[in-house]
Design goal:
By secondary structure, this protein is of the alpha/beta class. It is built from 8 helices and 8 strands. A 5-stranded mixed beta sheet has the order 6-5-4-7-8. The protein has a 3-stranded antiparallel beta sheet with strand order 1-2-3, with no helix packed on it. Strand 1 and strand 2 form a beta hairpin. The longest helix has 24 residues. It starts with a strand and ends in a 7-residue tail after the last helix. The relative contact order is 0.17.
Length: 254
């Protein structure tokens, strides 16, 4: 069968999933040496270094957090970030990017960039998203972010569900962007990076409002697609875009 990776979907004490590279076989196993707490026992304000410290106790030294931004929008890329933090990193002000204001995210982003041991970015555009679907595109972006790291690593903490074909053992943590400081940092880097890309796309494709809604499905965005038609950065496989492509009749299209 070859090398396998251990990945914990919903962190429970001493239990997890063993996944093969094929994604087709999952075998439930136990990890007596990894004592991860039950998700019901984990409360906000508890140690957000818990997963990193537990991995270090298990012998890992290069621990990376990975998260993505932009699965749901109708336009723009999906962006993933991989972040390796130093052990003495001050986690104050670092949390799930979705709970932060844009200004707070920018401040946290700048500090992460200054102080992180390594940061990798992976970007997968709308054409690939349409070709392989958003889930596989998100996985590809995560692998690309890890490939972009400038230093070696031996353990990966991932937000959400397991990601296949990673270059190191990994732990998938449901709602990990609320529980692991490394994943929180990755969520901030991914979100700020993607928002900046959408600001650039707003300049290249005026009229859609990308600077405001960042490509997400809003009434104003849908109205712009109906009026202008989709632009090259729209995800044409997403139903709201596909429906408006079928219904709109632009000059020169007959």
């Amino acid at each position: 069968m070859g090398q396998v990776e251990t990945e914990l979907i919903e962190p429970m004490a001493g239990s997890g999933w063993l996944m093969t590279k094929s994604e087709d076989l999952r075998v439930e196993i136990t990890f007596p040496h990894l004592q991860f707490s039950s998700p019901t026992a984990f409360q906000p304000g508890q140690d957000h270094w818990f997963y990193e410290n537990t991995a270090r106790q298990d012998g890992h030294v290069g621990i990376v957090g990975v998260d993505e931004a932009g699965r749901g929008p109708l336009a723009g890329p999906v962006v993933a970030a991989a972040v390796m933090l130093p052990e003495n990193f001050d986690s104050a002000g670092i949390r799930d990017s979705k709970t932060m204001t844009p200004a707070d995210r920018e401040v946290a982003f700048d500090r992460i960039v200054r102080e992180a041991k390594a940061i990798g970015i992976g970007v997968v555009g709308p054409d690939v998203i349409d070709e392989i679907n958003i889930l596989r595109a998100s996985h590809r972006a995560m692998r690309a972010a890890l490939d972009d790291l400038s230093t070696s690593f031996d353990f990966v903490l991932i937000d959400g569900l397991p990601v296949p074909d990673l270059p190191a053992p990994s732990l998938a943590i449901v709602k990990g962007d609320r529980k692991s400081v490394s994943i929180m940092a990755a969520s901030i880097v991914a979100k700020v990076t993607r928002d900046r890309i959408m600001l650039d796309l707003d300049q290249r494709y005026p009229g859609y409002g990308f600077a405001e809604h960042k490509g997400y499905c809003t009434k104003a965005h849908l109205a712009a697609i109906e009026s202008l038609g989709p632009c090259p950065c729209h995800r044409k496989s997403f139903a709201p875009v596909a429906e408006r492509m079928r219904s709109c009749r632009l000059p020169g299209l007959g």
